[in-house]
Fold this protein.
Amino acid sequence: MASVFKEIYNQSIKGPEKFWQEISEDIFWFKKPIQILNKDKPPFYKWFCDGKTNTCYNALDIHIDQGRGDKTALIYDSPITGNKKKFTYNELKGKVSKFASALKNQGITKGDRVIIYMPMIPEAVIAMLACGRIGAIHSVVFGGFASNELASRIDDSKAKLVVTASCGFEPGRTVEYKPLVDEALKLASHKPEKIILYQRSGHEVKLNAPKEISWDESLSNAQDMDCVEMNANDFAYILYTSGTTGIPKGIVRDIGGHIVALKWTMKNIYNIDTDDIWWSASDIGWIVGHSYIVYAPLFKGCTTVLFEGKPVGTPDAGAFWKIISDYKVKSLFTAPTAFRAIKKEDPEGKFFSKYDLSSFESLFLAGERADPDTIKWAETLLKVPVIDHWWQTETSWAISSNCTGIEMQKTKYGSACKAVPGYDVKVLKSDSSIAKPNEMGDIVVKLPLPPGTFPTLWNADERYKKTYMTNYEGYYQTYDAGHIDDDGYIWIMSRTDDIINVAGHRLSTGAIEEVLSEHQSVAECAVLGIADKLKGQLPIGLVVLKAGVKKDNEAISKECVQMVRDKIGPVAAFKVAIVIKRLPKTRSGKILRGTIRKIADKEEYKMPATIDDPAILSEIEEDLRKNNILK
Ligand code: COA
Ligand code: AMP
């Protein structure tokens, strides 16, 4: 029997314009696009360039127009605070429309940038959608980033306004946002004109009017606001992600392609219809949160869950099962690390047996490689398909997946399944030739990328071209390496740059090294990601001190750890800095980070032919052992 999936996939690759034109009929346009793909200036492809639409209209108004205003759009559940709330599409539109007006009253218009630095509360989603309503470009900054990271995003985006909250809650710790914002504003050279702060009940903070106003005050003169007409290629948002230096890359998303592609994915990849309850347990500060807590489920018109909690500790390892059972969730999307955390606390699934999960049909994992052990454990416990799929901030939706709404594929443990329609994925060797099946190489996607992916970087066309589109002419370089097997299954094995993946969070070791180098006693350093059973990878730092430094090594290590926490944020989970005598290098002076990582992970390694002094490797091994890294 012919495979439906194969047929649809082939159509998307052979005739992308026809394929996406038909899909684009499913969204609301003020003006339908005539030109589906503009190829005038490769690699800067533009989808639906003469169309006019609006992100917020497609997320809210369209469903009300279609008579589904009383359907639940958003369920907020916060086991940390005990708060729960449901919003229908009518209610959410009412709130978004008013906050859009509040933003307008503060001088925000089409194209202005608004930073959103908030915990997982409904107001964060409202702020995102309100920006879309008036054509402002939001840039959400994850709450676990420190002031320095916030400042670099304010500077790069030249944000006119910051929306924040008085605090967030982490298990056992309250995250005070106001001092973090104050510090960021001191550090930033660009100064936003206004701050709107949502006061969390019982945690109100003092504001300095007129520059700083509360969320409630901002609403005092707010009227209802209609959606403005936007060009399909205007930007909906900027989401910064780690680059190879401390300067983050501003991934931008254009409006039209984003709506078209994301709406399509809900049914075709995730098998979610308008009547379904969908839950993505991530954070709105990450791409998974942008696409699958907020945008895709609302474009589809289904119900999305906003969960302010953790897989364990809020209050226990049954938190996920409780949400699924309470709200009759059909499918959950999260990072493998969340399941590793649950497995660690409750290996036998004792909490699981307390809940009714009869509504639950599938679990999707992404953000890092899903190890087969975790997948099999989840399958045995949940008795539903567990699907590993692969994607990136750059693409905003899956490059490879089991497209469960088209045709279920069999699971191959360790593989992120097949290329999704729209993505022509290849493995290339260093000479740019195409690798044979099962042969390792750089994973690339043939241009043009499908709609919804990044058309460029914020104010950095050259960086976009040079970083992603130059090494392999005509292809987008994903910076992931792996292979494609005989059945077309994609196996993502490692990153080819200095990015590591800590609990599904993407971090640059180069950026951490930049921070350590600023320590006055540090002469040079290397940061590497070592394997960790819970978080996938953890960063460790090796630092060499300047000659003549008399300070105690332990004190220096502590200062280094604190500096990374202060400059990058707690999310870096940087807890180990080891003072060593010297770093192993090649004769040309390149630090052998790969070899050190292999030693730390107890992997076999070959003595690099170009090593300057092989004896250093034994010294490093000894240092790692002394510091309990090599157990
Ligand atoms: N605001 C402020 N701080 C935050 C934060 C936020 N939104 N999110 C995390 N942090 C802090 C944590 O409090 C912690 O700080 P600490 O060093 O003071 O303890 C630090 O950042 C590391 O946090 P985290 O990665 O969450 O580790 P953890 O040990 O607290 O929890 C897991 C481990 C597995 C439970 C957790 O990583 C998790 O839920 N992962 C899911 C992964 C995920 O959602 N990935 C998103 C991409 S899909
Ligand atoms: P981010 O941009 O933060 O979503 O991180 C994207 C990176 O995470 C990818 O380039 C991969 O390195 C990694 N990643 C995401 N999903 C997977 C997956 N399913 N398997 C392996 N690696 C993944």
